Structures are given as structure tokens and as C-alpha cells.
Amino acid sequence: MSYGLQEGDRPTNMTIVELIRAFGRDLPVGIVITEAALEPPGPIITYVNPAFGKLVGRDPDEIVGLSPRFMQGRETRRATLDVFHHALKRGERFHGYLTNYRGDGTRYRAEIDCRPIRNVRSEIEGFISFEREVIRRIGRPIANIAGRYEDASASNDQLGNALRALGIFVA
Fold it and tell me: For residue 150, what is the domain's CATH number?
């Protein structure tokens, strides 16, 4: 893949968002980038990859411009949303699990790893969220919450391994 470069082109300094758009396109994990404003109507989604569109059962072009709140429903826990909101407001990472809803109304359990995107002055310019569907493990429960779930679709791709090396989805 050329990622927009033609033969003879000189690479330019890419922003983190441009890198994510280039490399996240084929990643099996859902990626969402939002603006920094957290209060309604924000945060507003500025980018999603195809895997996220598939996860929520909607065309990615329909999702851009919405708030991630469109996925919430009756069984989405307010307490978890509050923890999520407060972590982002403090400029911290959120890693947790939410019950979300697809476009057709079916619910699913999502593991979310959301982090601030900072500029060179360390100001938050937005948030990036990595999301995947998880299912409850069968058998003896493990002591921590992360041990109660496993990825609904396993992948052995190299980029997925790179995300694991960056600590994505690791408590």
C-alpha cells in the first residue's frame, strides 16, 4: 500500500490522526477519533475505521458527525459512563466495558480503550478510542473485570500485535 505517496514523492510529517487513518483502515479493531469537547453535543466523531462501522452495524460515513452517545441504550450503565467521562475530563486513559447497541437495536458488550490525543504543547486535541466486542468467559471467574471477558473474534494480524505491544486493551 502506498498510503497516498506516489513514486518520487517525498514523505511529509504526518499527524497522529493521519497515521491512524492510514494504518487503521484495515485493522480488525474498531477505531474512533473524536473532538476534545466532552459536554453535549460533544464529543463529535471525526473519524471511524471500517471495523467500527461493522461493529455498530452502520456505514462509517453515517457515524462521522455524531456523538458516541448514539450507541447507548437501556442497559448502558450510567456509573460506567460517569467514570469514562471523568477520566477523559482529567486527561487520563479510560479502559473498561460498556453495553452498547448496534444500528438494528441489538446489544453487545464492548471493551473500550480511550486515550487523549495531545499536541506538542500537551493540550488535548481529541480522543482516540479502540473498541472491540467481547463475550463473557465461560467457566471459573477470574478475579479482575478484564479476566471476565474475551475478544469475540480473535485475530493474529501483525498490526493487532503492535497494538498489544502499545498496551491497547491491557488494564
Answer: 3.30.450.20
